[in-house]
Amino acid sequence: MLEFKYAEALATLLLRENDSLFEVRLHVLQQIYARASAYQKRGMMDKVILAFFEKKVEMIVEARTKGELTEIKKPPHPEFDGNRFRIGSKYDTEEEELLVWSMTSLQAPLKQEAGERYMELFVRILPEEARAIFPKEYQKFAA
User: Fold this and answer.
1) SS3 16
2) Which pLDDT tens digit goes with each residue over 60-109?
3) What is the DSSP secondary-structure string of 45-72?
4) Crossing angle of helices 46-62/22-41, nearest 10°?
């Protein structure tokens, strides 16, 4: 399915007329696709990967400047405000942040604030799964 979404995005870019940013858009699309493919190879959920990829494609298509495209291609960098983690940039997606927290949690236990952010995103993005797997956490973060 990811390959299909990539081909669809590529076709969208190719059909745009007089796009002075075409090459930059194409490069960013390729980088986002490579990251999405890497998440897939690591066994992350396709549902989350596709949501991240589709949001990034929309950003790529709508970007007006090379600077925006440069920001869009960056991986997420959640910010810690002293109490909790928040999305770092308007170009980050919660879905990719969830993927990153998931991979990080496989490397080492998350600190409390990071674990709470991970659970918050899990509940928001995968509410049905969260309700079944983490009923207490679902009650805490579902709103």
Assistant:
1) coil
2) 999 999 999 999 999 999 999 999 999 999 999 999 999 999 999 999 99
3) -HHHHHHHHHHHHHHHHH--SHHHHHHH
4) 170
